[in-house]
Amino acid sequence: MIITASSISELPAAAKRLMEFAGNQKVFIFQGDMGAGKTTFIKTICEVLGVSEAVTSPTFAIVNEYNGPGNKIYHFDFYRLKTQTEALDMGAEEYFYSGDYCFIEWPEKIPDMLPLNYIGVNIQALANGSRQISVEKI
What we know:
single chain, alpha/beta, globular
């Protein structure tokens, strides 16, 4: 599925489409260049899921936890990891198999740890400033 968002104001509709597409799947990996809008889109998805607290990038914390009505959400940013062992040591796999939402940025840092099934989200910034969001079930 391809979703195009011409502006930030279109992200809530894009997030709703993504969540409808995902169905019961709760693990999402987000790929795209630095500055493509991964964290911004995750913030919008969290809003759609009813999170009322501030959603921030977990670049330094590695993982942030949020609560929505009936949902626990873990937002990972593995950009700063030097090895997969660091993610193993923090118990990342336990989160991935918890049944809770997991939004993972920079999954290429942990290729051997990703679950077999997830929603792949690739965000590409287009020349006109819009974002092309490619989504697939893996």
